[in-house]
Amino acid sequence: MDERWSAPAKVNLSLRVGRPRADGYHPLESIVQTIDWVDDLYFGDADEDLLEIEGADLPADGENLVWKAADALKITDRDPLRIELTKRIPSGAGLGGGSSDAACVIAAVGERYRVPADARLAAARSVGADVTFFLTGGTARMEGIGERITPLDAPSDFSVVVVAPRYGLSTPTVYRTWDELGYPPGRVVEATRLPPSLRNTEIVNDLTAAAISLEPGLGDLISELSERWERPVMMSGSGSAVFGCFADLDEASDAAVAVADAGASRACALRRHGVHRLDR
Q: Which residue among 10, 39, 40, 206 is the active-site one?
């Protein structure tokens, strides 16, 4: 096995959250979009399983989602793997980097061992709520706890600038804080301030208040970027990354450079697919 794959980040264009179910999970409805900010994964043969990570200080043992994804496929005769993971997507930012990496493993290893599509989906669902989405990517409605995916028409009238501040947020902590705050709804963005393709969609993120209560500087960042960019700024997922929409990639690139002092800023085109083998 000698393959290179890319694992894209996502932004939640909109995120509605419901009160926790009896099992503790929160039902949600979200419009999700893959973007051109990617981790790279190389898959090769080895004498024993080995994960090498560049660009982030993350565990390389069985606690990493990469190995949990490989195990979830339940391949009894899998050969040892050497995986080189180049991390570019910030962790703890609500951009789904870890889930995308896991989906990449499921796609790559599942393809090599001819694991049926339904078994790959089952493996993705068992690893994490939004891993399933990254197997197809593009634009989709995500429901349930993230396992129900409905493809949507891809917008073509905007790019995004994503800013990931120098701190991350724990997704479970943000959800728990949202519960403790009494389930505050997010503020819906005024439709006239959105790209035309989003004006018939309720654009909101219910977790914003909880994230700001944990990191008050996030509220300052949203206000500052909204003023500097003169447009709405929204949080992705449970934070800490935020984003704004721009007419095209050139305009987004200029906007990203202008706020480089705010954190890791990147102009991103919308991506029409999820995890992807690079030699295709």
A: 10
